[in-house]
Protein backbone atom coordinates (compact mmCIF):
# COMPACT_ATOMS: atom_id res chain seq x y z
CA UNK A 1 0.00 0.00 0.00
CA UNK A 2 1.47 3.35 -1.05
CA UNK A 3 0.38 6.11 1.35
CA UNK A 4 0.77 9.84 0.91
CA UNK A 5 1.17 11.48 4.33
CA UNK A 6 0.44 15.19 4.81
CA UNK A 7 1.34 17.27 7.87
CA UNK A 8 0.58 20.95 8.49
CA UNK A 9 -0.31 21.23 12.18
CA UNK A 10 2.16 23.97 13.13
CA UNK A 11 5.06 25.58 11.28
CA UNK A 12 6.25 22.71 9.09
CA UNK A 13 4.65 21.85 5.76
CA UNK A 14 5.43 18.20 5.12
CA UNK A 15 4.60 15.36 2.73
CA UNK A 16 5.91 11.80 2.58
CA UNK A 17 5.44 8.62 0.59
CA UNK A 18 5.41 5.42 2.61
CA UNK A 19 5.27 1.88 1.25
CA UNK A 20 3.56 -0.85 3.31
CA UNK A 21 3.74 1.08 6.56
CA UNK A 22 7.50 0.84 6.91
CA UNK A 23 9.51 1.88 3.87
CA UNK A 24 10.02 5.65 3.60
CA UNK A 25 10.30 6.52 -0.11
CA UNK A 26 10.44 10.27 0.56
CA UNK A 27 10.01 12.58 3.54
CA UNK A 28 9.95 16.27 2.58
CA UNK A 29 9.73 19.01 5.22
CA UNK A 30 9.50 22.73 4.43
CA UNK A 31 10.24 24.56 7.66
CA UNK A 32 8.88 28.03 8.36
CA UNK A 33 11.37 28.70 11.15
CA UNK A 34 12.99 31.64 9.34
CA UNK A 35 9.60 33.29 8.88
CA UNK A 36 8.66 33.11 12.57
CA UNK A 37 12.13 33.69 14.05
CA UNK A 38 11.83 37.46 14.21
CA UNK A 39 8.62 37.20 16.26
CA UNK A 40 10.17 34.76 18.76
CA UNK A 41 7.44 32.15 18.13
CA UNK A 42 4.93 30.87 15.59
CA UNK A 43 2.44 33.48 14.29
CA UNK A 44 -0.67 31.42 13.41
CA UNK A 45 -1.97 33.56 10.55
CA UNK A 46 1.45 33.72 8.87
CA UNK A 47 1.81 29.95 9.33
CA UNK A 48 -1.44 29.15 7.52
CA UNK A 49 -0.64 31.49 4.63
CA UNK A 50 2.77 29.87 4.23
CA UNK A 51 1.18 26.39 4.26
CA UNK A 52 -1.10 27.46 1.40
CA UNK A 53 1.96 28.48 -0.64
CA UNK A 54 4.08 25.46 0.23
CA UNK A 55 1.75 22.48 0.34
CA UNK A 56 1.40 21.60 -3.36
CA UNK A 57 5.12 22.06 -4.19
CA UNK A 58 6.00 19.96 -1.13
CA UNK A 59 3.67 17.14 -2.25
CA UNK A 60 5.11 17.33 -5.80
CA UNK A 61 8.61 17.13 -4.38
CA UNK A 62 7.70 14.12 -2.23
CA UNK A 63 6.22 12.31 -5.24
CA UNK A 64 9.24 13.14 -7.38
CA UNK A 65 11.78 12.02 -4.78
CA UNK A 66 9.87 8.76 -4.37
CA UNK A 67 9.69 8.25 -8.14
CA UNK A 68 5.91 8.02 -7.88
CA UNK A 69 2.91 9.87 -9.33
CA UNK A 70 -0.42 10.84 -7.82
CA UNK A 71 -1.95 8.04 -9.90
CA UNK A 72 0.12 5.40 -8.07
CA UNK A 73 -0.91 6.54 -4.54
CA UNK A 74 -3.31 4.08 -2.84
CA UNK A 75 -4.39 6.10 0.19
CA UNK A 76 -3.90 9.39 2.04
CA UNK A 77 -3.25 10.14 5.72
CA UNK A 78 -3.43 13.70 6.99
CA UNK A 79 -3.00 15.38 10.38
CA UNK A 80 -6.44 16.24 11.74
CA UNK A 81 -5.37 17.80 15.05
CA UNK A 82 -4.42 19.02 17.55
CA UNK A 83 -2.60 22.06 16.21
CA UNK A 84 -3.19 25.54 14.81
CA UNK A 85 -6.60 25.29 13.26
CA UNK A 86 -5.88 27.50 10.23
CA UNK A 87 -2.76 25.46 9.48
CA UNK A 88 -4.55 22.13 9.92
CA UNK A 89 -7.29 23.20 7.53
CA UNK A 90 -4.78 23.68 4.72
CA UNK A 91 -3.55 20.08 4.93
CA UNK A 92 -7.08 18.78 5.36
CA UNK A 93 -8.42 20.69 2.36
CA UNK A 94 -5.67 19.32 0.14
CA UNK A 95 -6.13 15.76 1.43
CA UNK A 96 -9.88 15.95 0.86
CA UNK A 97 -9.46 17.35 -2.64
CA UNK A 98 -6.96 14.69 -3.69
CA UNK A 99 -8.98 11.88 -2.12
CA UNK A 100 -12.17 13.12 -3.78
CA UNK A 101 -10.56 13.65 -7.19
CA UNK A 102 -8.94 10.20 -7.21
CA UNK A 103 -11.58 8.41 -5.16
CA UNK A 104 -8.99 7.26 -2.64
CA UNK A 105 -9.45 5.99 0.91
CA UNK A 106 -8.11 8.46 3.44
CA UNK A 107 -7.90 9.04 7.20
CA UNK A 108 -7.38 11.95 9.57
CA UNK A 109 -4.71 11.23 12.16
CA UNK A 110 -4.08 12.62 15.63
CA UNK A 111 -0.75 14.47 15.61
CA UNK A 112 0.31 13.00 18.95
CA UNK A 113 -0.39 9.49 17.65
CA UNK A 114 1.75 10.30 14.64
CA UNK A 115 4.72 11.19 16.85
CA UNK A 116 4.39 7.75 18.49
CA UNK A 117 4.01 6.14 15.05
CA UNK A 118 7.53 7.37 14.21
CA UNK A 119 8.54 4.34 16.30
CA UNK A 120 6.93 1.97 13.78
CA UNK A 121 9.30 3.26 11.10
CA UNK A 122 12.47 2.32 12.90
CA UNK A 123 14.43 -0.51 11.36
CA UNK A 124 14.98 -3.70 13.33
CA UNK A 125 12.50 -5.54 15.49
CA UNK A 126 13.33 -4.20 18.96
CA UNK A 127 9.89 -2.60 19.29
CA UNK A 128 7.28 -4.70 21.05
CA UNK A 129 3.93 -4.00 22.70
CA UNK A 130 3.05 -2.75 25.19
CA UNK A 131 5.51 0.10 25.69
CA UNK A 132 5.41 3.43 27.47
CA UNK A 133 5.77 6.44 25.16
CA UNK A 134 6.68 9.98 26.13
CA UNK A 135 5.62 12.49 23.49
CA UNK A 136 7.71 15.55 24.23
CA UNK A 137 7.57 18.46 21.80
CA UNK A 138 6.87 22.17 21.51
CA UNK A 139 3.14 21.65 21.93
CA UNK A 140 2.89 18.44 23.96
CA UNK A 141 4.30 16.58 26.91
CA UNK A 142 2.24 13.42 27.41
CA UNK A 143 2.80 9.88 28.57
CA UNK A 144 1.00 6.92 27.03
CA UNK A 145 0.75 3.20 27.37
CA UNK A 146 0.89 1.98 23.78
CA UNK A 147 -0.93 -1.33 23.49
CA UNK A 148 -0.87 -1.73 19.69
CA UNK A 149 -0.24 0.46 16.64
CA UNK A 150 -3.78 1.85 16.92
CA UNK A 151 -4.44 1.79 20.66
CA UNK A 152 -2.87 4.00 23.24
CA UNK A 153 -3.99 5.11 26.66
CA UNK A 154 -3.16 8.49 28.13
CA UNK A 155 -1.34 8.14 31.45
CA UNK A 156 -0.38 11.74 32.13
CA UNK A 157 0.22 15.10 30.50
CA UNK A 158 1.48 18.55 31.26
CA UNK A 159 -0.80 20.72 33.35
CA UNK A 160 0.69 23.90 31.87
CA UNK A 161 3.64 24.35 29.48
CA UNK A 162 5.02 21.64 27.22
CA UNK A 163 8.71 20.85 27.77
CA UNK A 164 9.66 22.22 24.33
CA UNK A 165 7.73 25.40 25.07
CA UNK A 166 9.77 25.79 28.28
CA UNK A 167 12.99 25.35 26.27
CA UNK A 168 11.83 27.93 23.75
CA UNK A 169 10.72 30.46 26.39
CA UNK A 170 13.88 30.15 28.48
CA UNK A 171 15.94 30.63 25.31
CA UNK A 172 13.86 33.72 24.53
CA UNK A 173 14.44 35.17 28.04
CA UNK A 174 18.17 34.78 27.44
CA UNK A 175 18.00 36.29 23.94
CA UNK A 176 19.13 33.05 22.30
CA UNK A 177 16.64 33.06 19.42
CA UNK A 178 13.87 30.72 18.28
CA UNK A 179 13.42 27.77 18.45
CA UNK A 180 15.49 27.51 21.59
CA UNK A 181 15.75 23.77 22.22
CA UNK A 182 18.68 23.11 19.90
CA UNK A 183 20.59 26.19 21.11
CA UNK A 184 20.16 25.28 24.79
CA UNK A 185 21.17 21.69 24.00
CA UNK A 186 24.39 22.98 22.41
CA UNK A 187 25.25 25.58 25.08
CA UNK A 188 24.50 23.14 27.90
CA UNK A 189 27.26 20.79 26.70
CA UNK A 190 29.84 23.35 27.90
CA UNK A 191 27.97 24.34 31.08
CA UNK A 192 27.73 23.03 34.63
CA UNK A 193 24.35 21.31 35.21
CA UNK A 194 24.68 21.70 39.00
CA UNK A 195 25.56 25.41 38.92
CA UNK A 196 22.01 26.52 39.82
CA UNK A 197 19.49 24.39 41.73
CA UNK A 198 16.36 24.93 39.61
CA UNK A 199 13.22 23.11 40.85
CA UNK A 200 12.08 19.66 39.65
CA UNK A 201 8.30 19.52 39.81
CA UNK A 202 7.28 15.89 40.27
CA UNK A 203 3.76 16.58 41.66
CA UNK A 204 2.11 13.89 43.85
CA UNK A 205 3.84 10.59 44.52
CA UNK A 206 2.13 8.58 41.80
CA UNK A 207 1.34 11.38 39.40
CA UNK A 208 2.32 10.97 35.77
CA UNK A 209 1.42 14.56 34.98
CA UNK A 210 3.98 17.28 34.37
CA UNK A 211 4.34 20.96 35.19
CA UNK A 212 7.03 23.21 33.74
CA UNK A 213 5.71 26.70 34.45
CA UNK A 214 7.34 26.85 37.93
CA UNK A 215 10.72 25.99 36.43
CA UNK A 216 10.26 28.58 33.70
CA UNK A 217 9.42 31.26 36.30
CA UNK A 218 12.40 30.19 38.44
CA UNK A 219 14.73 30.78 35.47
CA UNK A 220 13.08 34.12 34.75
CA UNK A 221 13.45 35.23 38.40
CA UNK A 222 17.06 34.08 38.42
CA UNK A 223 17.75 36.16 35.30
CA UNK A 224 16.09 39.21 36.86
CA UNK A 225 18.76 39.07 39.58
CA UNK A 226 21.38 40.15 37.03
CA UNK A 227 21.72 43.80 36.08
CA UNK A 228 24.45 43.66 33.41
CA UNK A 229 25.05 41.34 30.47
CA UNK A 230 25.48 37.65 31.16
CA UNK A 231 28.87 36.17 30.36
CA UNK A 232 29.09 33.20 27.98
CA UNK A 233 29.97 30.88 30.85
CA UNK A 234 26.98 32.13 32.88
CA UNK A 235 24.68 31.49 29.90
CA UNK A 236 26.11 27.98 29.52
CA UNK A 237 25.60 27.25 33.22
CA UNK A 238 22.01 28.52 33.20
CA UNK A 239 21.27 26.51 30.04
CA UNK A 240 22.82 23.34 31.53
CA UNK A 241 21.08 23.75 34.91
CA UNK A 242 17.69 24.43 33.31
CA UNK A 243 18.06 21.54 30.88
CA UNK A 244 19.10 19.18 33.69
CA UNK A 245 15.94 20.07 35.64
CA UNK A 246 13.74 19.29 32.59
CA UNK A 247 15.64 16.09 31.81
CA UNK A 248 15.54 14.85 35.43
CA UNK A 249 11.77 15.37 35.52
CA UNK A 250 11.11 13.69 32.17
CA UNK A 251 13.38 10.74 32.99
CA UNK A 252 11.80 10.26 36.42
CA UNK A 253 8.28 10.23 34.96
CA UNK A 254 9.10 7.80 32.15
CA UNK A 255 10.58 5.37 34.66
CA UNK A 256 7.67 5.91 37.07
CA UNK A 257 5.21 5.16 34.25
CA UNK A 258 7.06 1.98 33.24
CA UNK A 259 7.11 0.84 36.87
CA UNK A 260 3.46 1.63 37.54
CA UNK A 261 2.32 0.03 34.30
CA UNK A 262 4.60 -3.00 34.68
CA UNK A 263 5.98 -2.33 31.20
CA UNK A 264 9.55 -3.22 30.21
CA UNK A 265 10.11 -0.91 27.25
CA UNK A 266 9.95 2.86 26.75
CA UNK A 267 10.12 5.22 23.77
CA UNK A 268 10.73 8.96 23.56
CA UNK A 269 9.36 10.84 20.56
CA UNK A 270 8.74 14.45 19.48
CA UNK A 271 11.15 17.35 18.91
CA UNK A 272 12.58 17.44 22.45
CA UNK A 273 13.49 13.74 22.10
CA UNK A 274 16.37 15.05 19.91
CA UNK A 275 17.96 16.47 23.08
CA UNK A 276 21.38 14.94 23.66
CA UNK A 277 21.30 15.02 27.46
CA UNK A 278 17.74 13.65 27.58
CA UNK A 279 18.71 10.68 25.39
CA UNK A 280 21.74 10.01 27.55
CA UNK A 281 20.00 10.32 30.92
CA UNK A 282 16.85 8.32 30.09
CA UNK A 283 18.95 5.59 28.49
CA UNK A 284 21.11 5.37 31.65
CA UNK A 285 18.10 5.26 33.96
CA UNK A 286 16.42 2.72 31.70
CA UNK A 287 19.47 0.48 31.81
CA UNK A 288 19.52 0.59 35.62
CA UNK A 289 15.79 -0.19 35.78
CA UNK A 290 15.89 -2.92 33.12
CA UNK A 291 13.70 -0.83 30.80
CA UNK A 292 15.39 -0.29 27.43
CA UNK A 293 14.58 3.09 25.89
CA UNK A 294 14.16 3.61 22.14
CA UNK A 295 14.24 6.86 20.14
CA UNK A 296 13.46 7.55 16.49
CA UNK A 297 16.26 9.25 14.53
CA UNK A 298 16.12 13.07 14.99
CA UNK A 299 14.55 13.61 11.52
CA UNK A 300 11.55 11.52 12.64
CA UNK A 301 11.35 13.19 16.07
CA UNK A 302 10.52 16.68 14.79
CA UNK A 303 7.33 17.23 12.76
CA UNK A 304 7.27 15.25 9.52
CA UNK A 305 4.77 13.46 7.31
CA UNK A 306 6.35 9.97 7.29
CA UNK A 307 5.07 9.51 10.85
CA UNK A 308 1.60 10.64 9.73
CA UNK A 309 1.61 8.09 6.91
CA UNK A 310 2.82 5.41 9.36
CA UNK A 311 -0.04 6.11 11.78
CA UNK A 312 -2.52 6.30 8.87
CA UNK A 313 -1.34 2.96 7.49
CA UNK A 314 -2.40 1.09 10.64
CA UNK A 315 -5.80 2.82 10.85
CA UNK A 316 -6.47 2.16 7.17
CA UNK A 317 -5.54 -1.49 7.61
CA UNK A 318 -8.04 -1.67 10.44
CA UNK A 319 -10.64 -0.55 7.93
CA UNK A 320 -11.07 3.03 9.11
CA UNK A 321 -12.30 5.47 6.51
CA UNK A 322 -13.50 9.05 6.79
CA UNK A 323 -15.85 11.21 4.79
CA UNK A 324 -15.46 14.69 3.37
CA UNK A 325 -17.23 16.15 6.41
CA UNK A 326 -14.16 15.43 8.57
CA UNK A 327 -13.05 18.60 10.33
CA UNK A 328 -9.91 19.79 12.10
CA UNK A 329 -9.70 19.88 15.86
CA UNK A 330 -7.31 22.07 17.79
CA UNK A 331 -7.69 20.57 21.24
CA UNK A 332 -5.73 17.68 22.67
CA UNK A 333 -7.83 14.57 22.05
CA UNK A 334 -6.56 11.06 22.03
CA UNK A 335 -10.01 9.57 22.42
CA UNK A 336 -11.13 10.99 19.09
CA UNK A 337 -8.64 8.66 17.46
CA UNK A 338 -8.82 5.75 19.88
CA UNK A 339 -12.58 5.28 19.91
CA UNK A 340 -12.23 2.26 22.14
CA UNK A 341 -14.61 2.41 25.12
CA UNK A 342 -12.06 0.76 27.38
CA UNK A 343 -9.28 3.21 26.62
CA UNK A 344 -11.62 6.19 26.84
CA UNK A 345 -12.74 5.13 30.28
CA UNK A 346 -9.21 4.66 31.45
CA UNK A 347 -7.96 7.94 30.07
CA UNK A 348 -10.75 9.81 31.78
CA UNK A 349 -9.89 8.48 35.23
O1 LIG B 1 7.87 17.90 17.44
P1 LIG B 1 8.19 19.30 17.06
O2 LIG B 1 8.95 19.51 15.78
O3 LIG B 1 6.91 20.18 16.96
C1 LIG B 1 5.80 20.10 17.82
O4 LIG B 1 4.93 19.22 17.61
O5 LIG B 1 5.80 20.92 18.77
O6 LIG B 1 9.00 19.91 18.31
C2 LIG B 1 9.53 21.21 18.31
C3 LIG B 1 10.11 21.46 19.69
C4 LIG B 1 10.57 22.90 19.89
O7 LIG B 1 10.07 23.38 21.13
C5 LIG B 1 12.09 22.77 19.93
O8 LIG B 1 12.72 23.78 20.72
C6 LIG B 1 12.27 21.41 20.53
O9 LIG B 1 11.25 20.63 19.93
N1 LIG B 1 13.58 20.81 20.25
C7 LIG B 1 14.51 20.55 21.20
C8 LIG B 1 15.65 20.05 20.53
N2 LIG B 1 15.36 20.00 19.19
C9 LIG B 1 14.09 20.48 19.04
N3 LIG B 1 14.46 20.71 22.53
C10 LIG B 1 15.56 20.37 23.23
N4 LIG B 1 16.69 19.90 22.66
C11 LIG B 1 16.77 19.71 21.33
N5 LIG B 1 17.90 19.24 20.78
ZN1 LIG C 1 4.70 17.69 16.64
Describe the structure.
The protein has 349 residues and is α/β, with parallel strands linked by helices. The chain folds into two domains: 2-116 and 301-348, ATPase, nucleotide binding domain (Nucleotidyltransferase, domain 5, 2-Layer Sandwich); 125-295, ATPase, nucleotide binding domain (Nucleotidyltransferase, domain 5, 2-Layer Sandwich), CATH 3.30.420. It has helices at residues 33-37, 44-66, 85-102, 111-117, 163-173, 180-188, 213-224, 232-261, 276-289, 298-301, 306-317, 335-338, 341-348; strands at 2-7, 12-19, 23-31, 75-81, 106-110, 131-136, 141-148, 151-157, 266-269, 293-294. It has a five-stranded mixed sheet, sandwiched between helices. A hairpin with a 2-residue loop joins strand 7 (141-148) and strand 8. The structure holds 5'-O-[(R)-(carboxyoxy)(hydroxy)phosphoryl]adenosine and zinc ion. Zinc ion (ZN) binds at residues 111, 115, 137, 270, 303.
Termini, distance in Å? 38 Å
Number of domains: 2
Bound molecules: 5'-O-[(R)-(carboxyoxy)(hydroxy)phosphoryl]adenosine, zinc ion
Major beta-sheet overview: 5 strands, mixed
> Can you tell me the CATH class of the largest domain?
Alpha Beta
Strand content: 15-25%
CATH architecture of the largest domain: 2-Layer Sandwich
Radius of gyration: 20 Å
Number of beta-strand segments: 10
What's the shape?
globular
Q: Which terms summarize this structure?
A:
Nucleotidyltransferase, domain 5; binds 5'-O-[(R)-(carboxyoxy)(hydroxy)phosphoryl]adenosine; binds zinc ion; 2 domains; 349 residues; 10 strands; disordered C terminus; globular; alpha/beta
Amino acid sequence: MLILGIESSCDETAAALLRDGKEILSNVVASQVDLHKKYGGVVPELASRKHVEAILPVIDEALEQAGERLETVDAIAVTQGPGLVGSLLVGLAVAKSLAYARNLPWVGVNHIYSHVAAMFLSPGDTLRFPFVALVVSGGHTSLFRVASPTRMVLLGRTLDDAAGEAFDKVAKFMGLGYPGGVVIDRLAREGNPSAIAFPRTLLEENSLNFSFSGLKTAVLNYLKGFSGELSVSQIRDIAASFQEAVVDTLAAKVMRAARQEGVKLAALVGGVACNTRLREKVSQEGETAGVPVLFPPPSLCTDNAAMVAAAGYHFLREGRRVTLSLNAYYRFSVEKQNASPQSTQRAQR
